[in-house]
Automatic annotation (TrEMBL), chain A:
It comes from the Bacteria. The chain crosses the membrane at residues 12-30, 99-122, 143-162, 236-261, 281-304. It is found in: Cell membrane. PANTHER family: DIPEPTIDE TRANSPORT SYSTEM PERMEASE PROTEIN DPPB-RELATED. Keywords: Cell membrane, Membrane, Transmembrane, Transmembrane helix, Transport. This is ABC transporter permease. InterPro entries: BPD_transp_1_N, MetI-like, MetI-like_sf. It comes from Phytoactinopolyspora halotolerans. The lineage of its organism: Bacteria, Bacillati, Actinomycetota, Actinomycetes, Jiangellales. Belongs to the binding-protein-dependent transport system permease family. Its main location: membrane.
TrEMBL record, chain B:
SMART domains: AAA. Residues 263-273 have a biased composition (Basic and acidic residues). It comes from Phytoactinopolyspora halotolerans. This is ABC transporter ATP-binding protein. Its main location: membrane. Belongs to the ABC transporter superfamily. GO terms for molecular function: ATP binding; ATP hydrolysis activity. Residues 8-256 form the ABC transporter domain. Keywords: ATP-binding, Cell membrane, Membrane, Nucleotide-binding, Transport.
Length: 319, 333
């Protein structure tokens, strides 16, 4: 297992180098000059040149790349052109908000997908199944910004139960943290939940038809135990993959939901970085998203081996 | 004769399909005596497995339509609720299925799967159940049961897996064991071991065994009573000697004719060629009006064969348990 993890980490480094080149190239090829944008109409030609030099933008691209990647290895992602703050600090300030939202949204998604998908698999072509199909279709089709605005109108406006947006740190006030989290988490969780409902339904249906489920029933096990240990336990394996992808997606910032709810997460910051041509900030965030995807995928693959003993990552143990 | 432990009368199973009701089992009756082996023989799709799954309510609900009667230890099984069938499953009637690879859950250890069977019928502390599981593994001839209990199914050989299945079936100490093609997926040498194992356990616990198979060689070796099924009907039944020595139904005769004789003294090229039966079993949605075997029958002795379903009647000159459903009466039987 250790050997496998090391091999995967080496692969991840190669992928990250590729990603960093790609990110760097795209960011620098996008039209628009960050210094002019930052200066606005105020700057003279001298200050413009001075700032370009200070940011290293007068160097050839290859040199700029190696300067960036070299300091990135030491944890220094550069300084934001727009705010003048270190990028690493700006990112780490946003991490708690993004983590809270992603974790809450994946919980919402699972709370929707597991019961609904299981019920519809247990009674195919029943009203429950019909409801699950229609509602997951709706959950996928309704744009999240519209759903978010409707939630705000209803729960923040008409009913006045929840704040319409913003973020309060958990350490500051846990109650306010939770109150602010509910609407964005539900908005972001519904779409993920809808995708996962279909996966749960099909994997539970598949597990239900397996011979070992018949064996479990023939043993005289309680229906509930058969369901838990032979149907859901086995249906969990494919669900981990989909859940992992969804979690990575949520962790890399749900831009629209963050904007609707004025949520100070990474997605929102990435968008602002694009708008301001804030090269170092954008490069830093996109690199972080790549790391998140790589880590989540590795964790998913390791979980796979834990959940399904037939999967072994030991060398030479391939079956 | 002792009281049968399982008594099935006029069992019918139909499956609702988009084309109509498929008549998979049509009026099967049999008794299983304690310690006796009943073999149910037939080709794939003849309804032999479905008929036994129906006893324990293991067919998909809402699709299968089951009628008739099956009395186990004085209790009617057909029409019972899921919750009332549960105490019978495993503890009254145990089952061993065909393919031990797919019949065992790949993500749970075999020990755990046996423990589940042990604890399904009453509370038992985990440690005690685990000890019982190891005992069962030893009983079915698995060496080093303590460590094997922690193995996953894919880590065991096919024969070992089938032994695990048998251990699971024995966990509830059943009075009847249904072995549904239990040796079909195994190598011939392993088949013999499994047959011997079930035979030994059967005599130790005086279990009634229903052995479902299409392998007549197995039947000849182990069965007391044989029931031949074709298209969901019993076409002939009798003791193993009666059936092998004096088969009456054209289908039974055809089946026996398609089996090579191992002890034929003639050299291979001088032997009679193996006979085959042309055609396929009838569509269970549209069974022929007369004898189900009529479309494939080469004898067709009687005009009634086409229009009337022949009743299952005792054969003249045989014991009253040798019965066949045919209008054909071969000479010298």
């Amino acid at each position: 297992m250790t050997g496998y993890v090391i091999r995967r980490l080496v692969q991840s480094v190669i992928v990250l180098i590729g990603v960093s080149i790609l990110v760097f190239a795209i960011v620098h090829l996008v039209p628009g000059d960050p210094i002019r944008l930052a200066l606005g109409t105020r700057g003279t030609e001298e200050t413009y040149q001075a700032m370009r030099e200070r940011a290293g933008l007068d160097e050839p691209l290859v040199v700029q790349y190696f300067q960036w990647i070299g300091s990135a290895l030491t944890g220094d992602l550069g300084v934001s052109f727009r705010t003048g703050q270190p990028v690493a600090n700006m990112i780490s300030e946003r991490v708690p908000a993004t983590l809270s939202l992603a974790a809450a949204a994946i919980v919402v998604a699972l709370l929707i997908a597991v019961p609904l998908g299981t019920l519809s698999a247990l009674k195919p072509r029943s009203p429950v199944d019909w409801f699950a199909t229609v509602s997951s279709q709706a959950g996928l089709s309704i744009p999240d910004f519209w759903m978010g605005i409707m939630f705000i109108l209803l729960f923040a406006g008409t009913l006045g139960w929840l704040p319409s947006g913003g973020y309060v740190g958990f350490t500051e006030d846990p109650v306010q943290w939770a109150r602010h989290l509910i609407m964005p988490a539900v908005t972001a969780g519904v779409a993920s939940g809808s995708i996962m409902t279909r996966f749960v339904r099909s994997s539970v249906l598949e597990a239900l038809g397996q011979d070992y489920v018949r064996t479990a029933r023939a043993k005289g096990m309680r229906a509930r135990d058969v369901m838990t240990w032979h149907v859901l336990r086995n249906a969990l394996v494919p669900l981990v993959t989909v859940g992992g992808v969804q979690l990575a997606y949520l962790l890399s910032g749900v831009v629209i939901v963050e904007i609707v709810f004025a949520w100070p997460g990474l997605g929102q910051m990435a968008l602002q970085a694009v708008e301001a041509r804030d090269y170092s900030l954008l490069q830093g965030t996109v690199l972080l998203f790549a790391v998140i995807f790589l880590v989540v995928n590795l964790v998913v693959d390791l979980l796979y081996a834990k959940l399904d003993p037939r999967i072994s990552y030991e060398q030479g143990a391939a079956r | 004769m002792t009281e049968p432990v399982l008594s099935v009368r006029d069992l019918n199973v139909g499956f609702r399909t988009s084309r109509g009701l498929a008549h998979v089992v049509n009026g099967i009756s049999y008794d299983v005596q304690p310690g006796e082996t009943l073999a149910i023989v037939g080709e794939s799709g003849s309804g032999k497995s479905v008929g036994t799954l129906a006893l324990l309510g293991l067919l998909p609900p809402g699709v299968a339509k089951v009628s008739g009667s099956a009395v186990f230890a004085g209790e009617e099984l057909i029409g019972r609720s899921e919750e009332k069938l549960r105490p019978i499953r495993g503890a009254g009637i145990g089952m061993v299925f065909q393919d031990p690879m797919t019949s065992l859950n790949p993500v749970l250890t075999v020990g755990r799967q046996i423990v589940e069977a042990v604890r399904a019928h009453g509370p038992m502390p985990k440690a005690a159940a685990r000890a019982r599981a190891e005992e069962l593994l030893a009983e079915v001839g698995i060496p080093d049961p303590r460590s094997r209990a922690d193995a996953f199914p894919h880590q065991l050989s096919g024969g070992m897996r089938q032994r695990v299945m048998i251990a699971i079936a024995l966990a509830g100490d059943p009075k009847v064991l249904i072995a549904d093609e239990a040796t079909t997926a195994l190598d011939v040498t392993v088949q013999a071991q499994i047959i011997e194992l079930i035979g030994r356990l059967q005599s130790e616990h005086s279990t009634g065994v229903i052995w479902i198979t299409h392998d007549l060689g197995v039947v000849a070796g182990i069965a007391d009573h044989v029931l031949v099924m074709y298209a969901g009907r019993c076409v002939e039944e009798g003791s193993v000697d009666e059936l092998f020595d004096r088969p009456v139904h054209p289908y039974t005769r055809g089946l026996l004719g398609s089996m090579p004789l191992v002890d034929d003294p003639r050299p291979a090229r001088e032997r009679d060629p193996l006979s085959t039966m042309p055609g396929l079993p009838p569509d269970p949605v549209r069974l022929p009006p007369g004898c189900s075997f009529y479309p494939r029958c080469t004898i067709r002795a009687d005009e009634r064969c086409r229009t009337e379903v022949p009743p299952l009647v005792p054969i003249a000159g045989s014991s009253d348990r040798h019965r066949a459903a045919t209008f054909y009466a071969p000479e010298g039987v």
